[in-house]
Amino acid sequence: MKETNPIKECNHKILAIQDVMDLLNGKWKVSIIACLCNEKMRYSQLLRTIEGISGKMLSRDLKELEINELITRKVLETKPITVEYEITEYGATLKDLTSVISDWGLNHRSRIINR
What are the two backbone dihedrals, phi and then psi, of residue 73, each rounded to the nearest 5 degrees? Predict the structure, then answer.
């Protein structure tokens, strides 16, 4: 029978959590992913939907999410040119995570308001 080392297992989990936090760091990336899990969106739609995000931050975060293969960027041949962002199959694996975070946030907000 294989013995487990609780400290080693904890360190392994912490390392994995740190990897996720590094990938999703910042204030806006999880919100961007949550939006794109529901539908593909244009840059301007994302800017309007995510209250408080600046254009500069949105551009930077979209680029980082694209580099990490969580979203795709598609340039449409329209006049003027339109750019659409869409969650990738790999990025869609984060949908459950964004739902859990959202549910927890709603419960927490309700708990704090109603104390």
Answer: -115, 125
